[in-house]
C-alpha cells in the first residue's frame, strides 16, 4: 500500500487569499457532477468508491471546476468513511490512505490547472456515510461522544493530508457541531470552515437556530469560517444575516439547486433554483459572505456564471 507524508495545514492560506481577493469562489457539486458524467455513485461507498476505482475521474471533475473559475476545490472525501471501506473488505490502514488520497487527487488537479487555488479536505457529517439521508434530518443513533469517536480518525488523517484547510460541511445538528468543535479545539494545527445544512431561513435541520450554531463556532479558534451549504438558495440571505450577527469571522455559503433529497429512491426531486443561486449571490456577498459556491447539482457552467455575477 502506498504511503503519504503528513503535512500540517497552512493556517494562514485562507486568510491570506481573502485579504488579497476579498471574496473566493468555491466549486460545485463534486458527487453530482461525477454522476452527470455517467459514473454510478449510489452504491455502498457512494462517490468514495471512485477513490479506489477511478481517481482520474475525480481529478477531471476538479479540473473542470477550476477551469470554471473556482478558487477553492473540495476533496472527494465527503462520504468516505473508515466503516464504509471496512464493510467492503478494505483494511483500516488502506481506508485511511484512500481518504487521504482524496487530497492528493485534488492537489494534482490544482497543479495541472490552477496552482494558486486552495484545496479544502471535505469532512461530511456522520449521516452522509450512512447513505440514508439522515444528514438532512440530524436523526442519528450516536450522541456527541459517539460522533466524536466516529469522526476522529478521518479528521486526523485529513488534517495531516496537506490540504489548505478542512471543510466540515452539511452539519445537520448542534450535537454534531459540538463534536467537530471539540476536535478542532483538540488539534492545534487543524483549521476548518464549518457549514450547516438548514431546513428553513432560520434553523439548521435539527431545529437549532443557525444563530446558536454560529455563536458556538465563533468561540472555536480552529473554525476559520462559518456558514451554510446544501440549502435552498432562497434561505441563504436570511441565514447569512443571522450568522453575521453572531460572528465577525468570514461567512461561507454554497447552496444546492433548491431541490429536495428523496432518501428512499436516492434522487433529487422538485424544481431547480440554480438561476436564483447566481442572481442572489451578490446579495449574499453584500450581507457578508466571503466564500460563495454551489453544492449538490451545481455544475462547472453554474460556477462560471457565479464567478461572473460576483
Structural write-up:
This protein has helices at 13-21, 30-36, 49-53, 55-68, 82-87, 92-113, 126-130, 144-159, 174-186, 210-218, 233-244, 274-287, 300-309; strands at residues 24-25, 72-74, 118-123, 165-171, 192-196, 223-229, 251-254, 260-262, 267-269, 289-292. The protein is an alpha/beta fold and 310 residues long. The chain has one domain (18-309): Homocysteine-binding-like domain (TIM Barrel, Alpha-Beta Barrel), CATH 3.20.20. The longest helix is centred in the first third of the chain and has 22 residues, at 92-113.
Tally the helices. 13
Strand order of the largest sheet: 1-10-7-6-5-4-3-2
CATH superfamily caption = Homocysteine-binding-like domain
Question: Any guess at the CATH architecture?
Answer: Alpha-Beta Barrel
SSE string, helix = H, strand = E? Answer: HEHHHEHHEHHEHEHEHEEEHEH
Helix coverage percent: 40-55%
Q: Residue-averaged pLDDT, rounded?
A: 91
- Strand percentage, roughly? 5-15%
Radius of gyration: 17 Å
In total, the number of domains comes to 1
Largest sheet: 8 strands, parallel
Uncertain runs are: 1-6, 261-266
Shape: globular
Number of strands: 10
Task: Say what the CATH topology is.
Answer: TIM Barrel
**CATH C-level:** Alpha Beta
Short description:
This protein is an alpha/beta fold and 310 residues long. The chain has 13 helices and 10 strands. It has helices at 13-21, 30-36, 49-53, 55-68, 82-87, 92-113, 126-130, 144-159, 174-186, 210-218, 233-244, 274-287, 300-309, and strands spanning 24-25, 72-74, 118-123, 165-171, 192-196, 223-229, 251-254, 260-262, 267-269, 289-292.
Amino acid at each position: 500500500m502506498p504511503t503519504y507524508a503528513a503535512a500540517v495545514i497552512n493556517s494562514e492560506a485562507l486568510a491570506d487569499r481573502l485579504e488579497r481577493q476579498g471574496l473566493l469562489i468555491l466549486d460545485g457539486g463534486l458527487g453530482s457532477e461525477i454522476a452527470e458524467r455517467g459514473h454510478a455513485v449510489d452504491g455502498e461507498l457512494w462517490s468514495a468508491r471512485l477513490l479506489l476505482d477511478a481517481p482520474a475521474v475525480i481529478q477531471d471533475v476538479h479540473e473542470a471546476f477550476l477551469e470554471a473559475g473556482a478558487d477553492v476545490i473540495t476533496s472527494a472525501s465527503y462520504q468516505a468513511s473508515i466503516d464504509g471501506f471496512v464493510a467492503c473488505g478494505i483494511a483500516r490502514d488502506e481506508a485511511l490512505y484512500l481518504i487521504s488520497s482524496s487530497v492528493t487527487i485534488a492537489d494534482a488537479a490544482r497543479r495541472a490547472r490552477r496552482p494558486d487555488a486552495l484545496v479544502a479536505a471535505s469532512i461530511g457529517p456522520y449521516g452522509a456515510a450512512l447513505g440514508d439521508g439522515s444528514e438532512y434530518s440530524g436523526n442519528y443513533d450516536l450522541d456527541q461522544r459517539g460522533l466524536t469517536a466516529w469522526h476522529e480518525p478521518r479528521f486526523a488523517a485529513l488534517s495531516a493530508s496537506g490540504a489548505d484547510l478542512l471543510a466540515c460541511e452539511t452539519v445537520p445538528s448542534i450535537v454534531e457541531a459540538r463534536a467537530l468543535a471539540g476536535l478542532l479545539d483538540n488539534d492545534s494545527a487543524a483549521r476548518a470552515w464549518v457549514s450547516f445544512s438548514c431546513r428553513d431561513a432560520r434553523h439548521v435541520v435539527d431545529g437549532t437556530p443557525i444563530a446558536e450554531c454560529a455563536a458556538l463556532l465563533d468561540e472555536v479558534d480552529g473554525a476559520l469560517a462559518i456558514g451554510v451549504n446544501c440549502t435552498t438558495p432562497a434561505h441563504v440571505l436570511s441565514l447569512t444575516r443571522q450568522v453575521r450577527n453572531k460572528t465577525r469571522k468570514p461567512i461561507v455559503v454554497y447552496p444546492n439547486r433548491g431541490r429536495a433529497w428523496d432518501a428512499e429512491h436516492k434522487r433529487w426531486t422538485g424544481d431547480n433554483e440554480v438561476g436564483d443561486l447566481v442572481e442572489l449571490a451578490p446579495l449574499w456577498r453584500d450581507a457578508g459572505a466571503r466564500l460563495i459556491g454551489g453544492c449538490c447539482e451545481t455544475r462547472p457552467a453554474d460556477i462560471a456564471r457565479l464567478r461572473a455575477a460576483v
